[in-house]
Amino acid sequence: MKTILVTGGAGFIGSHLCEALLKKGSHVICLDNFFTGSQRNINHLMGNKDFEVARHDIIQPIVLEVDEIYNLACPASPKHYQFDPIKTLLTSTVGMFHMLGIAKRCRAKILQASTSEVYGNPAVHPQTEKYPGNVNMLGPRACYDEGKRVAETFMMDYHREHKIPIRIVRIFNTYGPNMAMDDGRVVSNFIVQALRNEPITIYGKGKQTRSFCFAADLVDGMITMMDNTIDFIGPVNLGNPHELTILELAEKIISLAGSTSKISFKPLPEDDPERRNPDISLAKEKLGWEPKVELDDGLRETISYFRRLLKN
Ligand code: NAD
Ligand code: UDP
Q1: Could you tell me if 91 and 203 lie in one domain?
Q2: What is the pTM of this model?
Q3: Which of 26, 120, 137, 151 keeps 20 to 30 A from 270, CA to CA?
Q4: Which residues have a Cβ under 8 Å from the Cβ of 228 and sit 6 or more positions away?
Q5: Does residue 135 sit in the same domain as residue 266?
Q6: Are residues 67 and 87 in the same domain?
Q7: Does the Cβ of 240 fall within 6 Å of ligand 1?
């Protein structure tokens, strides 16, 4: 039985990943500082004898014996990663260094949850892994973007210097149950606003685009990447190429939620990327992976999740 460390395991994606890895018969150690993660996301796993939880901050060193590491620890929503930007930088740099230390000592395979934000405000559409990105290293998003870029560099240098088996996935906007209600991301914001029949807050004119991947599809891609036997280390884009404007997303959510909400336009945050769309040719070619869940179906499931949450 493999022992697998999932950092950020109580977060939105991490909780789905822990559940999927347990289903595959692994022993899972979920490590989290509970900054944006929540006990509620992992409560249903607590009775499982192969599930352990450790409250720990990866900025501090830790000694563990594991076979694999999925490093997801890092706040992902702009609101939360900008709350304490220095801490965000330290999580993706010092934290990454500590996780690579465990990988080196245990000869464990390590997967880094990188992000489409390494492409910044991209000048190339859709984004391929070869595109080096267009990041403003001085702006308010830099603590996240540059931290994740350094984390990728750390991964590559440990791989070259210490022969650590690595995997790098660049995750594009993902949504689904277990998103935090207050994390400020667009899908959770719009759904909660729609269910409360409150104004839907569109930043800017809503012409900016994103492409949304359902959490179950993403987790499947992450595990397929970790387990690939052709030693494909990435980086590889994981996301859903279905691109739409934020205005279209708002209209879709209002309709699916049966809401009477009206749209309210707010100022566009600094450095907000104009377009984002993954080219997933490499994932298809190397991993045979592509997302399966249609946006409408995934949104319906997410709306049901938030409906239940708002009732409690
Ligand atoms: P999330 O905020 O729900 O989860 C992050 C988890 O990491 C939380 O449980 C949080 O408490 C924990 N954490 C944060 N800092 C930590 C630290 N220093 N030590 C220990 N735990 C810490 O976010 P998510 O959406 O589940 O994202 C998970 C990972 O995927 C992140 O690394 C994020 O950058 C990456 N990612 C997510 C998306 C997305 O659309 N959700 C897109 C690109 C990349
Ligand atoms: N956004 C919006 N209203 C909201 C929250 C977000 O219009 O209430 C916009 C935001 O400006 C961005 C897009 O939706 O253009 C996606 O934002 P999110 O924070 O979810 O992710 P990211 O910007 O990191 O892709």
Answers
A1: no
A2: 0.98
A3: 151
A4: 167, 286, 287
A5: no
A6: yes
A7: no
